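Let's study a protein:

___
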Amino acid sequence: MTIIELEAQPKASLIVGYICDKRFDVIVKHMTMDGHQMVSLDLTRSLDEQGSFDVIVHKLTKVIGEVNTSVASSNKIRAIDEYVKRHPRCLLLDSPSSVATTTDRVKLDQKLQSLCIFDDFGNTIRYPKTVIVSSSGTLDPKFRFPAVAKPQNADGSTESHDMAMVFSERGLKELQSNEASILGRGNTVVLQEFINHDAVLHKIYVMGDHVFMGTRPSLPNVIASENNPPFEFFGRISYGEDERQAPIVPPMELIEQLCSELRNRLGLNLFGVDVITKSASKEHYVIDVNYFPSYAGMPQIPLTFEKFLLKSYTNLSAVQLAKGG
């Protein structure tokens, strides 16, 4: 008797359903030219009537963030989840339940608190000291200012980017009483210790196992002073272009290790990570993770995305084949 080992064969072309913003158009154009069928999905209609999809790609952070407060949003996410259950060979990028973690900074904080990546050369990547402050809660007296105040909501909406530098506990109380900001009105505030980092932000983009790192201007270093205001909104803080030093760049091997860890912790394939490096040190910190970023500055985005989809779909097919599906 001859035993034949079955292997999932790479598919030459895919049928891809997508719900993304206009930044995805360049990928749609590239993949269409390469013979893939790209279908813009309407979540108010039956997905089965719109096609038999190999892959569904989405950027539904705002909809996912509204699942618990909006029936319409809940129905849209349910439609996707149920379609994938009915069609187990359809690759969903990414699972709404996994994406939900990145739309809620309290949930993300819980996932990242224990983060600790290191190498043999003294480099470390951790998560800054962070506390969750409610309107009636008290602050740990050991917490150090200055700190960055962020709203719990991180769904990509305008308000989710409403952040402030807080210089004292008094400043935090004044901010929380500010009715004009989402950081006030009795809302929960995520307070993250500010670390001087010479105005350099490392932008990490992840597409499956492909990792790209670039740099951007960031907030200037802060010196504790009695002249500092109680708090200051980010929109009023000039980025520290004049303070930028030749950046201490985290080793790529360490960044790849970080991204592998985050893929496992968060269950995501498409995400961005913001990393800073403490001034004059090898201490690196993850200060944010967001789903399906712009990938701005990454070379050959459409081609890289196409290769990522083909590889991911082949891997899913191999799993289904092994299960006898």
